Amino acid sequence: MDKLNITHLAKLSQLALSDSERAHVEQDLAHIIDMVDHMASVDTNSVEPLAHPLDAVQRLRPDEVTEEVNRNRFQRGAPATEAGLYLVPRVIE
Fold it and tell me: Which end of the chain is more exposed for a tag (fewer CB within 10 A), N or C?
């Protein structure tokens, strides 16, 4: 990474970096890129993929109604209702 790229990245991420901070970011990014390059060079052809959570079957409880909704009771405290709906002031003109 050259300083022009670091300056561009800092601008894109809306960061104000001093010269010393820019130097630290440059070193950190260089280390990260080296690590990614090193990881990409490792031969993983003989490695089995790890288990994925989406392959697992989950035990689910039965979907049963456990309580009744009494709309009239809930709407008694509302300032205004009509046809089972809550009436609210208009907020968009």
Answer: C
Q: How many domains does the chain have?
A: 1
Q: Which helix (H) or strand (E) holds 68?
A: none
User: CA-CA distance, 3 to 19, in Å (whole number)?
Assistant: 10
Q: Express each pLDDT in 5-36 by its tens digit.
A: 888 888 899 999 898 998 898 889 889 989 99
User: Domain with 15 in it: what CATH number?
Assistant: 1.10.20
Question: What whole-number distance in Å separates Cα of residue 83 and Cα of residue 41?
Answer: 66
**Is residue 63 included in any domain, yes or no?**
no
Mode of pairing for the β-strands spanning 85-86 and 81-82: antiparallel
The per-residue pLDDT for range 53-67, each reduced to its tens digit, is 676 777 888 889 888
